[in-house]
Amino acid sequence: MSEPTGAARRRGPFKVGDQVQLTDPKGRHYTFTLEAGKNFHTHKGSFPHDELIGAPEGSVVRTTGNVAYLALRPLLPDYVLSMPRGAAVVYPKDAGQILAFADIFPGARVVEAGVGSGALSTFLLRAIGEQGMLHSYERREDFAEIAQQNVERYFGSPHPAWQLTVGDLQDNLSDTDVDRVVLDMLAPWECLDAVSKALVPGGILCAYVATTTQLSRTVESIREIGCFAEPQPWESMIRNWHVEGLAVRPDHRMIGHTGFLVTARRLADGVEPPVRRRRPSKGAYGEDYDGPGSRSGSAAGRD
Ligand SMILES: C[S@@+](CC[C@H](N)C(=O)[O-])C[C@H]1O[C@@H](n2cnc3c(N)ncnc32)[C@H](O)[C@@H]1O
Hey, which of 48, 137, 223, 258 would disulfide with 91, CB 3.0 to 4.6 Å? Predict the structure, then answer.
């Protein structure tokens, strides 16, 4: 059986064309591609790439200035945070949440928009594999090009399950029998009509938005369209820890905010969403509330 796309680049001794992530004694990272006969230069001397070619991952190389660097392949979270960007990328912690809670499975038929820099596309392709289908839509041609290069550099070749279309999702979405739709854009509510036609019954819509106003409008619009079960909104935070002897405590710094996620399951055609038993909080839909359709796409956030 042949190896899954890109798997050969993720294991075994270092080869020409592999990406290498060096870590210096201060924990700083440097990423480069291995080329025979080349040197890697630092401000503390250099070393030949040939020293790493054929060496196992986790090797330590020394520069001519006698500084030691640990050499490993970048993991996908490292890769997406260091690759060239057009638009802001989905943070790896959120990509992990999307893979888990949007239930992305091998062989799934997935639609995604926008593509931005291709970070989420890469996570999705790894999860669905060759037997799946990922159709990604991006309105900006320049971003689509950057994404295509980032995805192909990661896998080492075009991924057979990936199709990339330049254009607005709501005007171009032609896929049917789609299992999962993931939206990372300023105004996901503009795509709900098209998305609801594409999704299979039981399929999942997952939206990633940056601000509370976007979250509110997304959730209320999903309720209003009427063909989804009750949407589930959440956010996640990761707090790293400092663990050293008796000094065991949370790190002083953390990434406080990336975005909000919301998922909703597509109902079968012709089915009314079950009436919610819970009464809305007092004032939730009071006189100041004027419905999802009344606000402009005002939120400054992920575009
Ligand atoms: C925050 S970026 C997406 C980042 C991407 N998920 C990643 O991980 O690299 C949002 C992208 O959505 C695109 N976009 C916004 N609305 C769109 C729409 N209706 N259809 C297609 N693309 C859209 C923007 O051009 C932008 O590139």
Answer: 258
The arithmetic mean of pLDDT across residues 274-282, rounded, is 76
Per-residue model confidence as pLDDT tens digits over 24-77: 999 999 999 999 999 999 988 999 999 999 999 999 999 999 999 999 999 999
Closest-CA residue, ligand 1 atom 26, reads 116
In short, whether 183's Cβ falls inside 6 Å of ligand 1 is: no
* Global pTM value: 0.93
First to last CA, the chain: 41
- Which pair of tokens denotes residue 30? 């440097």
Task: Compute, in angstroms, the gap from residue 90 CA to the centroid of ligand 1.
Answer: 10
For residue 114, say if its preceding peptide bond is cis, omega within 30 degrees of 0: yes
Q: Give the Cα separation of 84 and 25 in Å (integer).
A: 25
List of domains in the chain:
14-74 (3.10.330.20), 78-273 (3.40.50.150)
Q: Encoding tokens for residue 26?
A: 């201060």
Nearest CA among 230, 224, 195, 211 for reference residue 293: 224
User: Model confidence at 278, in pLDDT bands (50, 70, 90)?
Assistant: confident
pLDDT tens digits, one per residue of 106-147: 999 999 999 999 999 999 999 999 999 999 999 999 999 999
